[in-house]
Design a protein that fits this description.
- It contains 23 helices and 18 strands.
- The chain has 605 residues and is α/β, with parallel strands linked by helices.
- It has 3 domains: 132 residues, Rossmann fold, CATH 3.40.50; 132 residues, Phosphorylase Kinase, domain 1 (2-Layer Sandwich), CATH 3.30.200.20; 263 residues, Aminoglycoside 3'-phosphotransferase, Chain: A, domain 2, CATH 3.90.1200.
- Strands 1-7-8-9-10-12-11 form a 7-stranded mixed β-sheet, with helices on both faces.
- It is elongated.
């Protein structure tokens, strides 16, 4: 286990060597442990220091060169480059610089004189004392020790502006903001800050332990956090999500706008805290929301380990009676415009959509089959290209730029972003005993057994996480994302190429079940077909039928071409992600190609 040592970092900018020496001596004499005082005498040195590291506070002299007010420019750059840093002006005589200082007064958070009772030396000490009251101890699991620091800073540094460097100091500061006690407000003290009651509450969090958590596909760094109070009691198990500042803030806004009051509490996690620094942001969520069972697993794992429970979880997730998101209308828009704006896809019109999809499918088919040595001959590749890649006129349909109904969607609802409540072993044992007893007493034991299995320990809770893409969008997008996850999660290491190729015909059969009649007819026919289907086919049919059911009573019901076009564009988006293009994902890409072939058949004029 490793403890992350927080340092209170102060930047002191002054051209007077005597004043800098006085400040250093004061820090040393007062034994200000873990205070790092960085000094600069020129604007160039100060701005280099600002770019390279995080600072809690910066004390900046107005005049570094006689007659010049470089300090004002430094304050401006601090506001842009390091907005989390407290900006403090110091001067020997403010009156002569008022004309230069006044325009930036809104971004100056405090001011000190160089000498006297309110000198900047006392300002440094007072801030240090306040920091020591709020600091918390942060420990890191041994699995994170070697790569943790590099991963945190590298992720935030990928898209930095003005060469502003992300550091572990900034991350520790953000954790302190999330878990530490509130800053004292002298103008509005709480009732416990008055009288004889101790100000240091036993409920304050003083320690946070971080452990590894398998991340999703968003690229953010995800950790489990175990807080402890001053009285050594365990706090709420939490999930820490570390992302670039822009992405973290976007997710925070989406949560407040669409999730906090727009979704049932047993369908989303709770946002416990958040903090935004200079380059990164930290969001702290309750672990798996309000799930009350002891076991929590991603739906992605359950698809492979417990298909029956995964199927029931999908039914709860997309239950039309609980469709908080999908009942919230969001106007109309085109598919190509949405994918361009939300995911950065190229802005395709109807014709360029046809060209790009056909070209990408042709490349993927060639790469997939040539990777199989037994089918590497050109004639075989050509045969499968003709089988899987449809003619160009398949895509020349008005559906790509048509004004289609929208609603509030999750936006990235793959199986890794869903956590069902998993029944405990104790629940399974008790229910098995009850079912056995009922079987001897009742002919309806089968129906009751299914009900018990569904309800055991789950409480109907299915939690969504990761709200970066949440907002208005194509109404069937979440269903398309989940259908993709089903196909990817059910490919085994032992899956063979012939099994992948056989999926093309099976995809056609699934589509016929879901879209070959009215919603009522589909439900009746689907119940019969599912008894003979493979489990991934059952899940696909279930999601497809629930998609239709959710929009059955809308003014415009969901149509097969709208659904097919949404699914196809989602697959095209997946083909641009690094994790799917890795060498070990060959069979996954093959399964998606088989699905693409069926979707193209549906879209053919």
């Amino acid at each position: 286990m490793l403890e992350l040592k927080e340092r209170f970092r102060i930047l002191l900018v002054d051209n007077d060597e005597a004043f800098l020496a006085r400040a250093k001596d004061h820090v040393k004499n007062e034994k200000m442990v873990d205070l790092e005082l960085v000094t600069a005498k020129t604007q160039q040195k100060a701005e280099d220091d600002i770019r390279k590291g995080f600072f809690h506070s910066a004390f900046v002299d107005v005049e570094l060169t006689t007659g010049q007010t470089e300090g004002v420019d430094i304050i401006k750059n601090l506001s842009t480059w390091r907005p989390a840093c407290e900006r403090i002006l110091i001067t020997g005589e403010l009156q002569g610089h008022w004309h230069d200082v006044f325009p930036v007064s809104a971004i100056i958070q405090d001011a000190y004189m160089k000498a006297g009772a309110r000198s900047y030396v006392t300002g440094i000490e007072s801030r240090y004392r306040e920091w020591t009251k709020r600091r918390i101890a942060i420990t890191v699991d041994h699995q994170l020790e070697s790569s943790f620091f590099d991963k945190v800073t590298r992720h935030a540094n990928e898209k930095r502006r003005h060469r502003i460097v992300a550091t572990v100091d900034e991350f520790i500061y953000l954790l302190s903001q999330v878990f530490g006690p509130l800053d004292e407000n002298p103008t509005q003290p709480s009732m416990f800050d008055q009288g004889d009651w101790p100000k240091a509450s036993l409920a304050d969090i003083t320690t946070v332990h971080l452990e590894h958590m398998r991340p999703g596909k968003s690229g953010a760094i995800v950790l489990q956090a175990f807080p402890k109070t001053r009285s050594d009691r365990d706090g709420i198990l939490s999930v820490i999500k570390i992302d670039t500042k822009a992405r973290a803030y976007s997710e925070y806004c989406n949560f407040r706008r669409f999730v906090r009051f727009g979704r049932r509490r047993d369908r989303h996690v709770d946002l416990l805290g958040y903090a935004f620094g200079d380059t990164m942001g930290v969001l702290c969520y309750s672990f798996a929301g309000s799930i009350r069972t002891r076991k929590v697993k991603r739906l992605e794992e359950l698809l492979a380990e417990d298909p029956q429970f995964a199927l029931e979880s999908l039914r709860r997730l997309f239950n039309p009676d609980d469709a908080d998101f999908y009942s919230m209308s969001a106007g109309e828009g085109s598919l190509t415009a949405f994918f361009h704006q939300r995911f950065g896809s190229k802005r395709w019109n109807t014709y360029s959509t046809a060209i790009n999809i056909a070209k990408l499918m042709e490349e993927q088919v060639k790469e997939f089959f040539q990777s199989e040595h037994s089918l590497g001959e050109q004639r075989v590749v050509t045969h499968f290209q003709e089988t899987f890649v449809p003619p160009l006129d398949t895509f020349k349909d008005i559906i790509w730029e048509a004004a289609l109904p929208g609603c509030v969607i999750h936006g990235d609802l793959h199986a890794g972003n869903v956590f069902p409540g998993v029944p405990d072993e104790a629940d399974h044992t008790v229910n098995a005993q009850i079912v056995s007893k009922m079987a001897a007493e009742s002919s309806n034991a089968g129906d009751q057994r299914r009900q018990l299995t569904t309800d055991a320990g789950s409480h109907g809770e299915v939690i969504m996480i990761d709200y970066y893409f949440t907002g208005p969008g194509p109404r069937s997008l979440d269903f398309a994302a989940m259908e993709s996850s089903i196909r990817l999660a059910t490919i085994r290491n032992t899956t063979t190429l012939p099994e992948v190729l056989a999926r093309k015909e099976r995809e056609a059969a699934i589509w016929e079940v879901v879209w070959g009649g009215t919603v009522a007819e589909t439900e009746l026919r689907g119940a019969e077909v599912m008894r003979q289907a493979d489990y991934w086919e059952k899940m696909s049919m279930t999601v497809g039928m629930l998609a239709r059911k959710n929009f059955e009573n809308h003014d415009r019901q969901l149509e097969d071409k709208e659904y097919a076009a949404t699914c196809l564009l989602w697959i095209m988006r997946l083909y641009t992600t690094k994790w799917l293009l890795s060498n070990e994902r060959g069979m996954d890409r093959g399964a998606l190609l088989a699905w693409c072939a069926q979707l193209c058949t549906v879209l053919r004029p």
